[in-house]
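notes to self, project folder thing:

trying the whole complex as one job this time. last attempt i did each chain seperately and stitching them together was a nightmare. two parts in total, labels are on each line so i dont mix them up again. if this works i'll redo the older ones the same way
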Amino acid sequence: MMLVWLILIPFIGGLLCWQFERLGDTAPRWIALGTMGLELLLTLWLWWGGDFQLPEIAGAQASQWVLEFRAPWIPRFGIDIHLALDGLSLILIALTGFLGVLAVVCSWKEIIGRVGFFHLNLLWILGGVVGVFLAIDLFLFFFFWELMLVPMYFLIALWGHSGTQGKTRIGAATKFFIYTQASGLLMLVAILGLAFAHHAATGIYSFSYDDLRNAPISDELAMWLMLGFFIAFAVKLPVVPLHGWLPDAHAQAPTAGSVDLAGILLKTAAYGMLRFTLPLFPEASQAFAPVAMTLGLVGIFYGALMACGQQDIKRLIAYTSISHMGFVLIGIYAGTQLALQGVVVLMVAHAFSAAGLFIMSGQIYERLHTRDMTQMGGLWGRLGSLPGFSLCFVAASLGMPGTANFIGEFMVLFGTFPIAPWVVAIASVGLVLAAIYSLFLMQRVYYGPAKSDEPLEGLDHREYVMLLGILALVLFFGLYPQPLLETSGAAMHEIQRLFTDPALTTTILPTGAS
Amino acid sequence: MTLTTTHLVALLPLILVCATAIVVMLGIAWRRHHTGTTIVTAIGLNLALLSLLIVWQVTPIETPLLVIDGLSVFAMVLILVSALACTTLAHAYLEHYKGPVEEFYLLLLCSVAGAMVLASSRHLATLFFGLELLSMPLYGMLAYAFHERRSLEAGIKYLILSAAASAFLLFGMALLYAQSGRLDLPGLTAGLANNTDVWALAGAGMMLVGLGFKLSIVPFHLWAPDVYEGGPGPASIFLASASKVAAFVVLLRLVMTTPAFQGEWLNETLTVLALLTMIVGNLLALNQSDLKRLLAYSSIAHFGYLMVTLVVSDGLALETAGIYLLTYVVTVLAAFGIVTLISSPYGGTDASALHHYRGLFWRRPYLTAVLTVSMLSLAGIPSTAGFIGKFYIIALGVEAQRWWLVGGIILGSAIGLYYYLRVMVTLFLAEAGMRRRDAPHNWGIRAGGVVVLGLALLMVVLGLYPAPMVEWVKLLAATRIG
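result (full assembly):
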């Protein structure tokens, strides 16, 4: 029941925000903050009390879930409301709670119109994301996967900024929605294909993760279905040929939207690959791994090179996300325990550093009313302590030792080396590019000739605490990543086992099953 | 065959609707009273709806001309519910109409009777009779505000094109009759069982043209946007919901039972038409700036998706068609209902241009919420009824391994999103300075408002908890004759 509440709390909180708008603008903000705070506390409480060690008896009997909830939903097709929590989903939900709090706080002054409705959308996105992280019935997963798009669309379309070269926020929002929805339908087709294959073999309709994992499907069909899943997740991650929506959506979204988008929504894709693509189609994924890793490499270089050429500070950060997600993709398809755990650390670290950078650019925008880096320059002495924080986040983003990003990237590369040494060698070059675009960012924004000598408004307490909090976490997990590794260990081990020894778990019908 | 009491019980809904029509007619002759007429109509329709509970006890049952099975009961429920929504909305709409208003309900009732006959016909005579009884009053309803050029144009356009379609239908029937010597569906089925003659095929094709016109399947769709846009709101609602349901149900029955419709060639034609309808309907809707036209094209596209059930026509097909029709009707009633409410009371052309709706949310949050939910439902987003429909359609396509159709549905949905989103975001944008039409302030507590709110609630409930609907449709689909 706890799991149901984790999903319901943001939805209820959102409705309350909308209704209490009539009490003034501050009421929705406090309600939203309280809601996300409660969500975060509940998750941390679960984390504290939960046991995430490897189950003693390895094998099919031992449940891989720490908490589970199951209730029938649409019995006609064997669809259940089936929620489950393991270390991986717990970490990501805690991250959602934390970034939710940040998103509320960072829009405290930025959003001034229709506050209640804004927070309704914000909280519903987060509710949908929590649903994605908890659902293990494939129908339910798809349900939440699509559900979180609608409020995100409104967030960008209604509270976003119109871009510099005539790019409108509505255009960006529509692009985002169509990309993700259309690819989502491909996933629905794949889910249905899998469910009907299972039905053909057993005569039972089921969308359950455990049942479908053992569905006997032919190799060819498995490849097609795997591609359906992969494309849906690749659009969201994003993987390079399918990334068109991301820079626009990020550049046009309000700060809170960017924080959520980079911090959590991109992670749902990585989560989907870890939870569904790899375990459901181990052989097909193995066969596909070289292609996926190549795409990851392309993403690393493409993102980094494009970032070097951007004028708009938020577009630059958006392209760095593409680059970082390239590492995540490589790590996922390497499939070793070390690489998979590195992926988890890297996801968390990227969420912090990207959130920090987006909040920073939002704060610069509030003061200068531009995101164009050619209009900045020489801000170091004029902004109080903001430049110092920026330097730290930029350092984190380029993977400086001591930050969590370093741990993540290092583990991904280290874990991939035994599988694909050449990929690692080439990907390492991407780290150099990361240093280049980071320096570009610092140089163009903070150094160089100042446009004016007047000092700008410094950070107030809200902003200061917010940035300090993120920074503390980046450094904490950079110096002591053990909590993350311990919590995700069992879940990652399970995925690694399913991925690398498919023969242990799937029953392959010898002939004729298709 | 003699008619027994059981047969009369089975025909009770039809009898009740016809009786109500007569009562309304006599009432108008005696004394004109708008609200009174509305109430009598609503009572009659409600009684007919309740009588379906009794009818359910005796189904399935056949008379020489009509068949009352799960499918016809299902269609009747949808038709009667649409008609009820139409009646309540028409009351608000016609409140300040200058000219006689009571006859609208008379026309509506006749049309309902026609739709019910059509949906339960098992004989080509009743098929034709029902179709004409459905269409004739619709000409009058569409041209009801005849001093508006648009409305008159809509009525006449529908009349002329409908007549052409009827000619096709009749010719097709004649060809089938020439081949089999029978007019009832079981007779046709038996007579054409081993007949691969080209004339039977031509007959089936021509009937398909005639019914396809009513369903506005591409390439017989050209009338739809003009007629929807020009007709008064309540008439458009009826045209988009009840009329289409009845025509689709009868087409489904024909395709599922009659061998002439199951040939390879016709099946491939249906596939191509379905693909065309999905894609063209969505493409044409992209640049519409009028909500009623946009909904007309969207309705074309939705019937493109529905045609997948005609192509597959076994396994899950009947259930899918039922679910999709149900979710579609609920959604389209809500969407058109809002347009009608905004244009109420009658004051010239309907307020359907998109700029009328700009910033509506900040003035009428709940009304806008209803329209938003129905747009989401039309787009097939989870947590709305439309998603369940879309899920079923895709499931059917995947199960039958019709990958072209599945691809068409995905492509069509992706295109469709663009204009649904455009409507949605318009509702939430900052208000423009222009003067605009608006629903009355107390819309929420009036009959029309209650209907629309109820439909929105139903959309969300069906989207979140579809199990009862699924079970109900499955039960009805299981008691089909033929």
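what i see at first glance: The radius of gyration of chain A is 22 Å.
need to look closer tmrw
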